[in-house]
Amino acid sequence: MSDTAETKIALRGLYKIFGAHPEEVLPLVRDEGMGKADLLEKHGHVLGLRDINIEMQAGKITVIMGLSGSGKSTLIRHLNRLFEPTAGEILVDGEDVMKYGEQDLRRLRRERMSMVFQKFALMPHRTVLENAGLAQSVRGAERKTLEAEATRWLDRVGLEGVGHQYPAQLSGGMQQRVGLARALAANSDIMLMDEAFSALDPLIRTDMQTLLLDLQAELSKTVVFITHDLDEALRLADHLVILKDGAIVQQGEPQHILLHPNDPYIVDFVSDINRARVLRVRSVMKKGAERENPTGVVDAEDTLESVIARSEGDTDAVYRVERDGKPVGVLEMRDLVRALVPMRPAEDTGEAGTAPLRAAM
Fold first, then answer.
1. Number of C-beta neighbours around residue 165 at 10 A
2. pTM (two decimals)
């Protein structure tokens, strides 16, 4: 992620406690460090989010991931204030969303943010075209404008000619494409995607991920994507945030997290991942280095798996690494092999969410 990228959404010191008197128990969490289990057992309140600080960059995909109960869906619902925080700041384009009145909040939800849901959330009594044009309809757009914009995005997501049909006539994958078209037709800068592909079959899910990446390369939306799936997170994320019990365990560039997990919980997350398929040459190469008579040339964004295939197992091979046709470093196969050795999984500490982690992936 570029250091010069503009911050689109900033969360600062965000807390969310569910219960009858959240403000009264907040000091126990914020000042005394009380955890989720103790807060529930001793005070009957549920800790949803704990001291969340994230800078989400404009035109990038921020992925929030964690197991069930980690707080990821709670977090995304704070961005458009479907949930009100117990404490903290929510800034969009530098504006404090917590200071918005009803009119500004309505404008935020209708014009500046769109949402794609896990269960599609299509209106069964409306056609596909009417569902895709819903945001335009709510804004009072003329029928001609609504239909043109909806048709444009239905075509773009591969649903040409189905605008007259109803959601029940479509497969699950096609329904989710309608949901994506609806979000795109809103012409908002920010897209919120809450487990958007989780209900889909694996192959359809992969297709939807590819479609999202293709659209993102073209449109550069600010996307906040919620998932519990590490493979999906590593494929989509420019910036990855991993939650546990409402708190951030680690965040950063996904490749860096994979190579440098800072917590036993993260080590467990990444221990079974196919590192060759996920890691990129840029994460393993010697930056700025040069070597005479290299074995060949590879791209900085190539996967290690593709380089292994090219090398035919020659551990003495050395490749010049290029980006946009310009040399940026050197990749030695011995460095590549070392990068494939996973971190040793953390010992089972008995903490909730750690032992069953891989089974839930």
1. 15
2. 0.86
